[in-house]
Input
Amino acid sequence: MANSSDEGGSVFSEGTLDEEVTTNKRPKVKDSKICGVCGDRALGYNFSAITCESCKAFFRRNAFKDTQIQCLFEGNCVIDVRTRRFCPACRIKKCLEMGMKRDMILDEGERKARMAKVLRNRAKKQSCGMQDVIKREQLDPDELSAESSSVSSPTFSDSMNSLSVVGSSSTDLPEKLFRQIPPKDFPKDRNMYRQLTEEEQQLLSDIAVSYETTVAALPEADFGKPENYQTANDLVNNTEICVRQLIKFVKRLDDFRLLSQEDQITSLKGAIMKSQLLRSVAFYIMERDAWLTQKGEIPTSILSEATGLASLHNLHVSYCRTLKSIVLNNFTLYALMQVMLIFHPDSIKQVDRELMSNLQDKYICLLKHYLEAEYSFMFAQEYFVAVLGKMSELKSLSDKHSQILLQVNPNQVEPLMLEVLNLK
Output
């Protein structure tokens, strides 16, 4: 299960991959909220206080243990994003000081009742033809948290959600786009949708939040440093921040911690290129054939201009368009696909392939269940086949992108990229 609370130690114990990316600032978004406990980005109220998902989960687990937890120092430890896991006693104390209330923690029966209400609200929206809701009805804070995995990331609220990504495009590529099911065609009978278990709901929420706040987050722009995409070296170096975000994402996955250190590194290196391609789909703007960056939009033509590989550019853009027509801006689906890329048992250097395969099976099953819950038993198979089909294309497209590495001068590439791309 994904863990967005930063509990536990470092996944990697040596080498460049062990760097903790703590200097990358969160993107500044409209109406952003700050956690009153640790200062991290917050989505809304939790237990009567504005907190991040990490402090929300921590409070739920420890609210009734405050008398059992003792501070090992002087009882006034600084609690921030970097230090919040070091002293649970001072963290729970600060939670209470910020106004978080124990009596708002739901017991098992109350949580099931709340989830039933969420499902009824979702069914009501579907019956009204609101598959892609932009202006959502006001929900209780806990309901908003429970449904956060089904809405687009705040990072894209102003830039992406206003676009109709299945519409016309400035490109004339002939690929066939996925047929999005019209909302009116979805069944109205709630029995036609899978009822996800509470554990599945929590896991989906965790990985979606983790993905949106790491891999899918736009880093704060440094306007004093111009973006440069003139050569293959520039393309590789500009992906370094994305690699660091991917490292942060996998370190929030509890299942990733089940792997040996050797398999962790092998898995991460094997997924780097495919993960970058998947991320490029999330940031792709179909109408203008461009990618969204922290400084605005850049045309996809920079790929062919920097490498001279026009055929590679066409394949890449075609892939972005076709996968975008399936996934749209559903970051729960992007997160599921990302996890499945991490747990892939195809590397000759992996030690425990059976464990890797079992973990991948877990998320393939979760993907199927999620689609049945979102799109009904009637249409889930159509989406399931389409998503897995596009994932199978990633390996071929990734292999073709390795042509770019043949143009790279290792002396002009950042150390982290040298390591993860095996260019040393």
Notes: The CA atoms of residues 139 and 405 lie 49 Å apart.
